[in-house]
Amino acid sequence: MTIAIERRSKTRQPAPELDVERVRRDFPALEQTVNGKPLVYLDNAASAQKPRAVVDAVARAYVEGYANVHRGVHALSQQATAAYEGAREIGRRFLGAAEAREIVFVRGSTEAINLVAQSFVRPRLNRGDEILITHMEHHSNIVPWQMLCAARGARLKVVPIDDDGALDLGAYERLLGPRTAIVSLVHVSNALGTINPVRELVALARERGIPTLIDGAQAAPHTAIDVGRLGCDFYTISGHKVFGPTGIGLLYGRAELLASMPPYQGGGEMIRSVSFDRTEYAEPPHKFEAGTPHIVGAIGLGVALEYVESLGIDAIDAYEHELLAYATERLAALPRLRLIGTAGQKAAVVSFVVDGVHAHDVGTILDHEGVAVRAGHHCAQPVMERFGVAATTRASFAFYNTRDEVDRLVAGVERVLEVFS
To answer: Cα 269–275–277 angle (5° rounding)?
Structure first.
């Protein structure tokens, strides 16, 4: 069986080569052993490992320069504030936003989607309106919209996917209608690896005056993002998936939209003045950052994004594409193994099922071999239902993974086939 993985761009110039062995030395976690064997970490779609630069920056921020931000006149507070706002500027650059005020710090993509749902969509949503998502969404881009639809009497519409895991573009265009309040869709599927043609999808929505939100949690580690070029109204990323700390992420929003939105939460930091009669809110982005923020998380995220930039996103993209093609070819050749998600445009994710073996058993045997993968529904149960499976085994790659590690994965699956022969 041969599965073709297409090139992302036929006109892209050759990317510089990635020195993977040097990169691996930047990640202390990769040096450990599991069950007496060198760790092969292939669970990057769930959460990526952290480079030493991020670990050191987080430690340094707590030890040498920790204080609350924005409110203090003393040196440590000003130092922390500069580092925190500096990370916002790095986020702006990474996402291609026009201004730093378009970047809101959040806990991750989940909070970002909830913020947009409650602050932007809810006040504009009427009974009978529609919210459009796709069949490949993570639960974080399903449940908030279900909750909102139930509260406002709106309807959730879902764009179908084909047997390869690619979006039905014709159905998408047909589902865009006069009652569509927002389109919210994933850039890269966490369960399938499918890369959606976001620029084209956004353009179709914009032609009809429909706002768009793109969940970029899985895209940020793998491919270049330019929100200006994409044309979307909102874009989200999660820090822990792009080699940064947990509990931190970014929401990009068009400046004029953020300015029109009410605060998501109330408290300190997000105000201009407070009295018992009335409160005046701060301008975006601070209007959406109530309370003491995850200061050190933001600093660590900034360092993580700079680390990715230092490697070169084109080099990462090219290397991971070759790794994905190799893994796909080797796994597809195994008996009793079925790949789930074979779209031509994919990020470095391979999901599969082994006939007669539960995904959890596959994951357990692989763990005994020192190979860390994810087994389950991947917070994408509608995807599992679409393909008629309860769960899949998912190997998700990063730029620090190697062909030798793919071979270790394949050898582990061959061990599964022996045990369950």
So the answer is: 130
CB 112 within 8 A of CB 121: no
- C-beta separation of 121 from 129 below 8 A: no
Residue with tokens 């990526």: 48
**What are 53's two structure tokens?**
């630069």
Residue 63, CB-side half-sphere exposure with 13 Å CA sphere: 6
Does pLDDT of 214 surpass 60? yes
**221 close to 242: Cβ distance less than 8 angstroms:** yes
Catalytic site positions? 379
Residues 241-266 as b or e (16 or more Cβ within 10 Å = b) = bbbbbbbbbbbbbbeebbeebebbee
pLDDT digits (tens, 9 = 90+) for 164-178: 999 999 999 999 999
At residue 268, what is the residue type? G
Strands (E), 228-278: 234-238, 249-253, 271-274
At 225, list the tokens.
């993002």
Domains of the chain, each with CATH number or no CATH: 20-49+312-419 (3.90.1150.10), 55-310 (3.40.640.10)
Task: Give 287's DSSP letter.
Answer: G
Whether the model pTM is above 0.90: yes
